Amino acid sequence: MDEPQNPATALPVEMPIPGADEIVLNMGPQHPSTHGVLRVKLKLDGERIEASECIIGYLHRGVEKIAEHRSYQQFAPYVDRMDYVAAVSNGLGYCEAVEKLLGAEAPPRAKVVRTILTELQRIASHLLWLGTHALDIGALTPVFYCLREREEVLKIFEKYCGARLTTHAFRIGGLQYETYDGFEHDVKRFCDDFEKKVEEYEQLLTGNRIWVGRTKGIGILTGEQAIALGVTGPPLRASGVKWDIRKAMPYAAYDQYQFDIPSGQNGDTYDRYLVRMEEMRQSRRICLQAIENIPTGPIMAKVGKVLKPPPGEVYHAIEAPKGEIGYYVVSDGTVQPYRVRVRPPSFINLQAFDTMARGHLVADVVAIIGTLDIVLGEVDR
Amino acid sequence: MLQEAYFILSNYIWQIVDGLVIVAIFPLLAGYVVLLERKVMADMQARLGPMRVGPHGLLQPLADAVKLMIKEDIIPESADRAIFWLAPVLSVFAGMLSFAAIPVGPGFLIADMNIGLLFIFAVSSMGIFGIVLGGWASNSHYSLMGALRSSAQLVSYEVAVGMAMVSGLLLAGTLSMKDIVGYQAHSGFWLVFVAPVGFVIYLVGSVAETNRAPFDLPEAESELVAGYMTEYSGFRWALYFLAEYSNMVVVGSVATTLFLGGWLRPFAGTPAFHFLDYAPPLVMLGVTGYCVYRIPKQTGWDQKFIMAIFTGICFVITVPLAAALPHPVAGWQAGVHGAFWFIAKVMAYVYVFLWARFTFPRYRFDQLMQLGWHYLIPLSIVNVMGVATAIVLHREAGWNPVVSIGVTLVVTVLAALWLVRAGERREQATLKSAA
After folding, report:
1. Domain A63-380 in CATH 3.40.50.300
2. Which candidate, B430, B141, B79, B368, places its Cα nearest to that of A44?
3. Which residues 46-75 of B are in CB contact (within 8 Å) with A?
4. How far is B424 from chain A, CA to nearest CA, in Å?
5. Rounded to whole angstroms, how far apart are CA atoms A91 and A34?
6. Domain coordinates of chain A in residue numbers?
7. Given phi > 0 = left and psi -120 to 50 = alpha, else beta, which region is A167?
């Protein structure tokens, strides 16, 4: 039997020979701008990156394994803890995957409410991304404005389901709760205010010479590279590939609404920034269309109290704020899933890090980590 | 021997007192600049800032100082202990020594050297040794990179800042801080109106020299954790912190003296504006009144009491300002009014620093170098030549001063625009080659 390889010596980024020009710099797992517990090993020539390696797993909780010991409904709150800044999107993906397995479909009213909440979540997630990304690049102020607006979204969530972050807003088959009185009003007021706020952020950053200098031409990812690496979400679209599951394989109620898929050309950090800014505007547009006409009727499909899907397997993917989040659920006919495999966008987008970072400077590492918009809870699961 | 001692004491007693005052109140002042920074930051970011320690956080600096002093003193095992100990002391030493030559008011100046400006320039540059040595002695990658960055940054921006100073010196014709202000009083124009380009270069360069955002690369938080200060904690860290804020006040004071008329009141030579003499006591009276208004709004008798103390301090400052009103042109009366205007100008200058910090993202290191070498240094050289030409045109060829300065200013601005155009072309070329 082969000896187990020591992971430390198996790394491509090895300690240099003393006296060589390169140094190896460990960024993280405790570093202010690696967004949690990411550890990046950088091989540097001066400040220029020659090679890099992301070391993950510091936040591994075995979420997928937990699924095999819980009933279908019991597992639903766990997915909220993966991408904890976009819990609603995670929940939607899981609920729809299980519904597909059951052959059930959520009623129209549930679908529309799900769409509204998911789009609000996309705005909240992008706001947090914008704030922290700007903070990493050194702009101290936008993060507070972003959190201020995100707070409004979280208030809507809180009013709807009592929780702000890990909401568990949806149930398999529809919704647990009816919308509260004034839900449409709250969403409309948020959307009306929000347009001006996005303008404000753009005023602070978009034309700023320092911001442009720090983001343009940084971390370039061509369309082919992005596809080859499996990158999805805004990073893929910024590279010029117009791929959005909301349009390509509509789920929830997205086929009923008008919206555009923003895309970039250069695939650099600046384009990814512009794409996400435009996505926030499009999400607002979807929300405004959706609250115009929320159908009446039941909010829960008849799926029964005990879920026993027929044996089989299903893969269902949705467009989460960070990219394609997919659930591959296998049922063996019992009340517990045989296997739940998650395709997390952050994990797969993080693979592109080395491609994007090579040849850049240490200062660009934080810009690239920020622009990938990773959440370590989802990377490690 | 005794006679000599008596002679020194009787002649230099005021310098010694001034020195003691600066050493005693200076750390406190720096603490309150920090509080000001946090309040300004909070104001720009839709928050309140420190509110808990004392009314409106007025005791926060004291609490911070106590906390930092009683923290555990950690020296990393692999650090060079002697240099690790020396470095922050050197930094703060350089910052405080510069104050010796800064004229706060006509009478409040520790050492009126004939090379005052050169002295400040030399001494404050010594602070960089503290940063480089501290980064080296910590024996850590982040510290080392922070130290290297700051040494490169300082060397680059020293040139531009020096050149900007030269443009002011050419006009004033003296290095003595007192005489520079005297020249501005005599000519009736602050030098910022005569050499505006020099002032702008000094403003940008001094932000870079004090390692403040958007040029705070040596301590770039999101990249290098804390740069050269990464391994420092407790009181040593506080010394670095003190040095940073003292440098801020020093560059503000130099800018005020050289470009903004030092202790002079705005429109000091124009009789029509003499009513401005009423501004200092009225402003302080207004602050006192606001404090009185806030006293009953504080919760708890202790907060009310502290607010009342601060009200008293404001009032105590108001009294000499008001007492000096009848004759605020000479003697101690001019001193207190001069100090008021000087501190107000320095604070305005520092406010610009804070404003920039909370507005701009951070430059990348190569971009920072580019800004220094490709824009500021060439422009500062053009500016010095322009100012020199204007002086020659005025004094030798007998041109009207406004015309000669206007002409050279237009040339300098055109040169600046050309530099920007050339820089943009270069940027596009590099972007193209990268893609």
Report:
1. no
2. B141
3. 46-47
4. 11
5. 25
6. 63-380
7. alpha
Distances (CA, A) of B223 to B190, B213, B226: 41, 14, 8
Q: Are strands A312-320 and A170-171 parallel, antiparallel or unpaired?
A: unpaired
| Closest-CA residue to A36 (of A146, A167, A128, A153) | A128
For residues A236 and A219, give the distance between their C-alpha atoms in angstroms, rounded to a whole number. 13
Phi-psi region of A378 (alpha: psi -120 to 50; beta: other; left: phi over 0): alpha
- Tell me the pLDDT of chain B averaged across its residues: 82
pLDDT per residue over A49-68, tens digit each? 888 888 888 888 888 889 88
Q: How far apart are CA B91 and CA B156, in angstroms?
A: 19
Question: What was the pLDDT predicted at A265?
Answer: 85
In chain B, which among 343-382 make CB contacts under 8 A with chain A? 357-367
Q: Rounded to two decimals, what is the model's pTM?
A: 0.82
Tell me, what amino acid is at B266?
A: P
The mean per-residue pLDDT over the stretch B351-375 comes to 84
Ramachandran region, residue B349 (left: φ > 0; alpha: ψ -120 to 50; beta: rest): alpha
- Please give the share of chain A, as a percent, with pLDDT higher than 90: 6
Task: Please state the rounded mean pLDDT for residues A78-94.
Answer: 88
Interface of A with B in 361-380 (CB under 8 A): 361-366
Helix (H) or strand (E) holding A324: strand A323-331
What is the length of chain A? Answer: 381
Q: Classify the C-alpha dihedral B147-B150-B152-B154 as positive or negative.
A: negative
Closest CA to B208 of B267, B288, B326, B128: B128
Residues A244, A232: Cα–Cα separation, whole Å: 8
- Locus of tokens 């020093």: B250
Residue A364 near residue A71 (C-beta atoms within 8 A): no
At A276-307, the pLDDT tens digits run 999 999 999 899 888 888 888 888 888 878 88
For residue A120, pLDDT over 70 is answered with: yes
Tens-place pLDDT, residues A130-163: 988 888 888 888 888 889 889 989 999 998 888 8
**Which residue from A136, A144, A208 is facing B45, i.e. has the nearest CB?**
A144
* Token representation of residue A168: 């568990």
Dist. CA B380–CA B406, nearest whole Å: 17
Q: Is the Cβ of A208 closer than 8 Å to some Cβ of chain B?
A: yes
Please return the burial class of A166, using the count of CB atoms within 10 Å of its CB with bins 0-12, 13-18 and 19+: middle
**pLDDT tens string B349-361:** 988 988 888 888 8
Instruction: Dump pLDDT digits (tens) for B194-237.
Output: 888 888 899 988 888 887 777 776 666 656 666 777 778 888 88
Task: Give me the phi and psi of B162, to 5 degrees please.
Answer: -60, -45
pLDDT digits (tens, 9 = 90+) for B17-47: 777 777 777 777 778 888 888 888 888 888 8
DSSP characters over A135-179: HHHT--SHHHHHHHHHHHHHHHHHHHHS-SSS---EETTEESSPP
- Give the pLDDT band (50/70/90) at residue B331: low
Q: How far is B253 from chain A (nearest CA, A)?
A: 26
Dig out the tokens for B429 from the structure: 């070329």
Which DSSP letter does residue B214 get? T
The two structure tokens encoding residue B259: 């470009």
d(CA A217, CA A194): 29
Q: How far is Cα A322 from Cα A121, in angstroms, rounded to an integer?
A: 11
Write down the residue that tokens 């979204």 correspond to. A153
Instruction: Report helix, strand or coil for B134.
Output: helix
Hey, what are A266's tokens?
């250069």
Residue A252, phi-psi category: left (phi > 0), alpha (psi -120 to 50), beta (remainder)? left
Mean pLDDT over the full length of chain A: 85
CA distances, B114 to each of B100, B108, B400 (Å): 13, 16, 30
Q: What is the pLDDT of residue A328?
A: 92
